[in-house]
Design goal:
334 residues, alpha+beta, Phosphatidylinositol 3-kinase Catalytic Subunit, Chain A, Domain 5, 10 helices, globular
């Protein structure tokens, strides 16, 4: 893959229509089209992080977005490059002409009597800056008139829950998914803002330690948390979220897991194609690439495939019972 030089790109005062909170941003023009540059966050601005000069959020944004693309989902276009002596990611503006991005956090402010009654009955807080209350999202998906008539929105939400867990993106907050709106109507936005995937705040020393300690790596997989909370007090672990008795989640697991299985080689090839260095700039180290691939494989083997197998096994048992029942009826002369 190519690492671009964005040094000569002209500044754009548009500054993008989305961006998240992962670091500084800057609007630029690439071939006269608006893009937004995302810079890595300084380690000194992060909490509980040592030995980290800058985060790897630009690389995470690029890799996470391309995982979604490989799996066949519409996603914002991303390019890796250099600007102002930093490795950065350029994200193409989602909005052109009269199109606007409406984030979920805006959509959920819609007034509706039935919706408000359902939210009141749930006796739930509205979440916090650290997590999203899952029950609140599900109520909006069901009863919010600004949301529930968008084709495919439930499927998209649950597919992202599964894939974000697979790539360890624990920041799918209410501001980084939504819809595109113009005079023709509302449609689902392409997937964007994946910079929290693949633990971008982990320094190289810890990357190497993880690779050398498989037991610690696997424990970390089981302990990894999501963007969502079930109790309004803390973020839920991905392994626990996968076990929810929710038909939409179960269908998402059945849709997504075979996709991941079939595309694992392509995903790994994409990661391996990223240069380790460009000139004086470190991009993605060999060890970091190895860890990302190993963690994804463990999540697939230890978390996703067992849940997928359980669901398929239950379906087979149900179908077998139906066939036996019909045969019994035939034997009885019904």
């Amino acid at each position: 893959m190519r690492i671009f030089d964005f040094s000569s790109c002209l500044f754009s005062d548009r500054n993008g229509t989305y961006g998240g909170n992962s670091g500084d941003k800057e609007g630029i023009l690439i071939e006269n089209e608006p893009w937004i540059i995302k810079y890595p966050k300084k380690g000194s601005r992060l909490t509980n992080v040592s030995d980290l000069l800058y985060s790897t959020t630009p690389e995470s944004e690029y890799i996470g977005s391309h995982v979604y693309e490989i799996l066949g989902y519409p996603v914002h276009k991303t390019l890796l490059g250099i600007r102002n002596n930093h490795v950065v990611v350029a994200c193409k503006d989602l909005c052109i002409n009269d199109t606007r991005l409406i984030e979920f956090r805006q959509l959920k402010n819609t007034y509706n009597k039935v919706l408000n009654e359902k939210l009141d009955l749930s006796m739930s807080p509205t979440g916090s800056e650290h997590f999203v209350l899952l029950n609140e999202v599900l109520i909006h998906l069901e009863y919010n008139p600004s949301i529930n008539n968008i084709p495919g929105i439930k499927e998209r939400f649950w597919d992202c829950v599964v894939i974000d867990g697979f790539i360890n993106n624990n920041d799918r907050n209410n501001g980084n998914w939504g819809i595109l709106r113009n005079k023709s109507g509302d449609v689902l936005s392409p997937i964007y803002d994946n910079g929290a995937a693949f633990s971008p705040n982990v320094p190289e020393k810890r990357i190497i330690n993880k690779l050398n300690n498989l037991e610690s790596l696997e424990k970390g997989i089981y302990d990894s948390v999501t963007s969502y909370s079930l109790d309004g007090k803390s973020s839920s672990k991905f392994v626990d979220l996968l076990k929810l008795d929710n038909d939409n989640l179960k269908n998402a697991i059945k849709r997504v897991v075979p996709l991941i299985q079939n595309k694992m080689v392509d995903i790994c090839n994409m990661i391996n194609s990223i240069p380790e260095k460009v000139g004086e700039f470190s991009v993605v180290s060999k060890e970091r690439k190895q860890l990302y691939q190993k963690e994804m494989q463990v999540r697939l083997d230890e978390l996703l495939l067992p849940e997928f197998s359980k669901l398929i096994s239950k379906e087979k048992n149900v179908n077998t019972k139906k066939i036996k029942s019909k045969f019994d009826d035939y034997e009885r002369g019904y």
